């Protein structure tokens, strides 16, 4: 019963699974990017884009990535601070740092640069 209530909504999963991951999203790697005006589903789309941009889809199933992201969104509580927008902001900040300093982190910390350089 708990897994049912904590899992993503299938209709959202179906809708997002039919969408293509955009080749780029303007300003998402800008440290001053502000997600406060994005709808929750747009934050999901941005999170999926950031993951695919860093790691690609060769090692991860797109549907599993979407399901995971939607489930994370669903399980954040609607409180003033520690909510889905805050979680997205933290992920976006890390994405921005990794994008602008790809050789700063060792492979175990971030294998995106290593993976990207090998392709």
TrEMBL record:
InterPro entries: PDEase_catalytic_dom, PDEase_catalytic_dom_sf. One of its GO terms (molecular function) is metal ion binding. SUPFAM superfamilies: HD-domain/PDEase-like. PROSITE patterns: PDEASE_I_2. Residues 9-119 form the PDEase domain. Coiled coil: none annotated. One of its GO terms (biological process) is signal transduction. Transmembrane segments: none annotated. Keywords: Hydrolase, Metal-binding. PANTHER family: CYCLIC NUCLEOTIDE PHOSPHODIESTERASE. This is PDEase domain-containing protein. It comes from Cherax quadricarinatus.
């Amino acid at each position: 019963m708990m897994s049912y209530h904590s899992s993503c909504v299938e209709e959202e999963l179906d809708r997002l699974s039919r969408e293509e991951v955009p080749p780029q999203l303007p300003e998402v790697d800008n440290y001053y990017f502000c997600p406060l005006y994005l709808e929750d589903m747009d934050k999901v789309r941005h999170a999926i884009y950031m993951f695919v941009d860093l790691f690609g889809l060769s090692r991860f199933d797109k549907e599993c990535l979407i399901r995971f992201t939607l489930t994370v969104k669903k399980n954040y509580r609607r409180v003033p601070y520690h909510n889905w927008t805050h979680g997205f902001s933290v992920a976006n900040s890390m994405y921005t740092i990794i994008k602008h300093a790809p050789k700063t982190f060792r492979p175990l910390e971030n294998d995106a640069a290593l993976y990207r350089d090998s392709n």
